[in-house]
User: Which sequence fits this backbone?
């Protein structure tokens, strides 16, 4: 059921919101009555289609903005466009991420930069660019980490390193931006299986699921619900990581 706010609806900026987990977070928060900024880089059709659907449901409740987050000037423009649209910002969800294999002995600087700049550098500079606006609203930042931030994935060292950085980023920003801005992270497990060159066989998927306490995969809605909890029900929680992985060992 859509929540009715006595004041203006909260404005949420979600990076990588065109597809997969980012899109589900956007749908869930929009259904709660929030206004959504759908950031995308390459998923233009999906993001614009989602934006159009939101605005049909509730007029002027969503915008979509393209930005390559590897460039700091684009990060600053993304925040500026958000403020131009609504005048304020309540929540930043750093979801955009690159998942790519980096086998030791074959890693080059381009692969390192692609992963670190997208997964770690961009969330930091987005938080920096948005912090003054979030402080005015006593808002929050939610970073999407990964269970492999704590337990590295073989052949994905740089990805694992970048997500470990997101955990430390969360803890550091919680202290730097408090008391006006809360900063937390969510660490997904088997939620959305990798695509393309990183796809897993059915046998590997079953093996991973067998290692969870709940013996089943999760869903993007599980992440979206955790995001909503951190927004609405976690006023005394900051600098923490919530792991949503079905009890995987």
Assistant:
């Amino acid at each position: 059921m859509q929540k009715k706010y006595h004041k203006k609806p909260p404005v949420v900026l979600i990076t990588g919101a065109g597809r997969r987990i980012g899109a589900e977070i956007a749908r869930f928060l929009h259904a709660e009555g929030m206004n959504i900024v759908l950031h995308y880089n390459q998923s233009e059709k999906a993001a614009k289609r989602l934006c159009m659907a939101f605005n049909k449901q509730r007029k002027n409740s969503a915008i979509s903005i393209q930005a390559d987050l590897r460039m700091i000037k684009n990060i600053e423009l993304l925040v500026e466009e958000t403020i131009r649209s609504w005048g304020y910002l309540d929540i930043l969800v750093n979801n955009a991420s690159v998942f790519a294999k980096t086998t030791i002995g074959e890693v080059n600087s381009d692969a390192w930069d692609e992963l670190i700049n997208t997964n770690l550098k961009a969330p930091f500079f987005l938080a920096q660019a948005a912090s003054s606006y979030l402080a005015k609203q006593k808002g929050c930042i939610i970073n999407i980490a990964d269970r492999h931030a704590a337990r590295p994935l073989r052949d994905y060292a740089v990805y694992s390193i970048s997500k470990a950085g997101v955990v430390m980023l969360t803890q550091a920003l919680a202290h730097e931006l408090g008391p006006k801005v809360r900063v937390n992270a969510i660490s997904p497990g088997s939620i959305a299986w990798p695509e393309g060159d990183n796809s897993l066989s059915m046998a590997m998927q079953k093996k991973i699921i067998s290692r969870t306490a709940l013996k089943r995969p999760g869903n993007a809605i599980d992440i979206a619900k955790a995001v909503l909890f951190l927004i609405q029900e976690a006023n005394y929680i900051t600098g923490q990581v919530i792991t949503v992985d079905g009890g995987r060992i």
In short: The longest strand covers residues 182-188. The chain has one domain: 11-244.
